[in-house]
Amino acid sequence: MLTASVKTTKTKMIGTLCIILALIIAVILFFGGNGSSEAAESISRRASDNKERLDYLTAKGFEAASEPSAVEEVLLPEEMDEILSEYNEIQLESGFDLSPYLGKKVKKYVYPIDSEEETFATLYIYEEKIIAADIASHTEGWQRPIDGGEKFG
Asked: How many Å apart are CA 114 and CA 104, to the nearest integer?
């Protein structure tokens, strides 16, 4: 059996422990810190009621009307056509993906987000969870991801 002993002072021991602690903190911050993408993911996508939908829009920086201007049930097609595929590209920019919901019935909520009711936030909900969201101007004919980005249309 091999044994070894190391002679050290209290100062060296405390210094070594401080370095180890600093390395542990650095690893935690690097792999589990508050990066912008992680902060965006921390916004709840739960939408079981109007308050949670409005909380989501507020967290995204929008002041929406207190009630939706339209609510409807939408059946997503079984397969993506060209239009839905383009729309899904918009959703992917915000961390959403409609692929798992093809063939499902979802609820669509439309909220005016300006006083003239020309710009709208649209939320698609499946089983009380937001699965897609966008901002659109019906008068100007553009649409963009809820998190900003290029306007389409």
From this structure: 31
